[in-house]
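Incident review: delayed structure delivery

Summary: a single-chain prediction request sat in the queue longer than the usual turnaround. Root cause was a stuck worker, restarted by the on-call engineer. No data loss occurred. The affected request and its eventual output are reproduced below so the record is complete for anyone auditing the incident later.

Affected input:
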Amino acid sequence: MSTIATRLLDNYVGGAWTPAAAATEALDVANPATGEVLARVPLSGRADLDAAVAAARAALPEWRAVSVPERARRLFALREGLSARHEDLARSVTTEMGKTIGDARAEVARMIEMVEAACAIPTTMQGRVLEDVSRGIDAETIRQPVGVCAAIAPFNFPAMVPFWFLPFAIGCGNTFVLKPSEQVPLTQQIAFEVLDAIGLPPGVVNLVNGGREIVEGILEHPGIDAVSFVGSAPVAKLVYEGAARTGKRVQALGGAKNHMVVMPDAVIGRTVDGIVGSAFGAAGQRCMAGSVVVTVGEAHERLMKPLVEATRALHVGDGLTDTTEVGPVVSCAARDRILEWIDRGERDGATVVVDGRAPAGDLAEGGAFVGPTILDGVTPEMAIAREEVFGPVLTIVRAGSLDEATAIVNGSRFGNGTSIFTESGAAVRRYRHEVEAGMVGVNIGVAAPVAFFPFSGWKDSFLGDLHAHGPDAVEFFTKKKTVTSRWLSDGQGHGSYFVER
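Output delivered after worker restart:
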């Protein structure tokens, strides 16, 4: 493993880049395509988190006092700053996480879209008023910021996922503390360079690098009012319980096992494109990746040959190479875990029809590569069909009818997303009505909502009441206050200086 950089990353606290004073350990940040060390990330301690929360708490009164239109103007400036650094951000995503440069550019575009949605805060943060709820009495509900908000982000979307939360939180008048994934901390260093340049009061946004100690500290800290989390289902449950135990508002987005149902009348060419993009884009490291195909009736025979051919044709390599269609997974540890899942699926009786355990190509020896893999003959009871693999592994399950396919999907403990491929409007209506998943795609492989709609996972894929982005974001990052008022003037000048004489 060669070293191309060894700088130790700083935190961003109180409007300044700050060394992690309480860190006792640092981890290498490596390029998963080459194994090269890009930087070192400190595992900050509780004192570092305390400093960030103190800065956020101190900034809260000043930031809340900034008018809502002016806060929106800062978000417009943030949008422009991120757009100017679009390519820098995308290349950072690819270099530290591994996804192809095309995927990374699309991720940064979604990141910017979140800021654009948050720019509407003067409209979306409005309350409600009703005159004469009783004679001479009016009632109104206004929205006010929750306080200090924190987010714990995953590795798979270094640019986008933190911005599911940050722009909406500060737009609503809150202050913010971000803990990026220690595996991919570099992209948010760029984002915070942009945030540093838009003139926010010191302490409005803060970044603390770290690991488990900082996560636990966020859950326990009395100065934090709300927590947002994205990660695996077991950790999401711990975050939800820990934040709730200390009285915090919490949204915890967990894992997934997303199913794609293919009906006999599906347009096969476009269906294959959708499945391949969903299953193998970002090397399958998406909480909205389609990891199970459920073929209904004769759809299996129509689908498999072109699906296998398209999968075998995918080029595996360094995500910075324009011809690469599947990059590495995030680490060698992740690679080894995914390979074990493929082995287990085969031992349990599945047939490996496309084998990515030894991908071909000019791949660096230290790279964390797993090629696109398809397992056929999978049953719903197999672990490979039930548990989240989080890699470029697609399983094929057969069903005899739409009812059976729906039952297979609904049998999963996850309910993040699903897709159906068909030209039958009746089948679509029935499926979308009966399926137990929060996001549904029709002839679309990845049914991830745009910024203006909520990311609405169900079941073990989400713990909380209000989802990420869309109108739920404003609900989550504000608390409501209802004012009931009556004015005691009799309209004849008694008790008021403001009536005509």
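Verification: Residues 1-5, 497-501 have pLDDT under 50 and may be disordered.
Action items: add queue-age alerting; document worker restart procedure.
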